[in-house]
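Data deposition worksheet. Section B asks for the primary sequence of the deposited chain exactly as it was used as input, without tags or linkers unless they were present during the calculation. Section C holds the resulting structure in token form. Section D is free text for depositor observations; keep each observation to a single sentence. Incomplete worksheets are returned to the depositor.
Section A, Depositor: J.P.
Section B:
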Amino acid sequence: MAYTPAKTWSDGDILNATDVMDNLDGVKQYSRHLETGALKTSTPWVDTSHVMEGQYEPTTNMHSMVTGTYGGQNSGGLFSRATFASRWNTFRKSYSEQSILLPQTSLTVDLRRKASVFFQWWMQVQVKDNMTGGMPTGSLSPRTSFWFAINDTVAGTGVIQKSETKQGVPGPSNGKSGQVLLDGTFNTNGFYTLSSTTVQSSVGFGITCRCTGDMAHCLAWGVSVEVFYL
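Section C:
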């Protein structure tokens, strides 16, 4: 049986929102109870061979589908895949050149179409007492900082961290006698959204870090990226 709209308009009729909604609701109800005779089966509406099969990459846990991409990494169980930052691998040059990518937290994505990208992360960080001197002191000093960063290998711009996503993690005061579980464990998280107007391959998304203390131990952490093609 053919669909009959609840309201039809002629020249000069007033367009009311209620009439439009009644027609839209009618289409929804009709689509849920389609009869065989209402379907055009002589010619397929789509050639299924043209639909790209989804791909799954187990190493990076990435799903690449027709409408977008999703994937992520996490630390797993306690101490399974811990990562860290310290002044020994970040605090090496001038203040503007001492950030590095936090190990294991980066994901590489192929943007096959124009897309919206949503990246998020969370971490539980333990910052040890710094007994070596020469570093910021006091519990309010951001011993460790984290940022969202993009690594565009196509444009060749290198790693660019987004300053507005900075998450500062303080450390215990020098000489503090309390245990690190009581005075040195902190939770941090963040997210970032962006739009890609061009097709790009091998675009990296991840977390950069900078540490002025002896070590920031990321016990538990997780990162994920979602790509929605426009």
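Section D:
The chain has one helix and 13 strands.
The radius of gyration is 26 Å.
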